[in-house]
Design goal:
By secondary structure, the chain is α+β, with helices and mostly antiparallel strands. About 40% of the residues lie in helices and about 10% in strands. A two-stranded antiparallel ribbon has the order 1-2. The mean pLDDT is about 95.
């Protein structure tokens, strides 16, 4: 549910992203585990990690205005 919301948010703001499904992509799952994470969604923005659908953090890292 939150993975889809994150993808919708990024798309609505014209932010390109690579969608990696850890249930189908073993390398993506291994990367998540190497980072010590066991939940999704995980969004990397300039190596900054956003766990879950955190609109405030996403906007801050993407330089989006809070009201948009």
């Amino acid at each position: 549910m939150f993975c889809q919301r994150t993808k919708e948010f990024l798309s609505q703001h014209g932010v390109g992203f690579e969608d990696r499904d850890v249930t189908k992509d073993e390398a993506a799952l291994e990367e998540l585990q190497r980072r010590g994470l066991m939940t999704t969604p995980v969004t990397l923005i300039d190596e900054q990690v956003v766990v879950g659908f955190d609109v405030i953090r996403l906007k801050a890292l993407l330089g989006l205005e809070p009201g948009k």
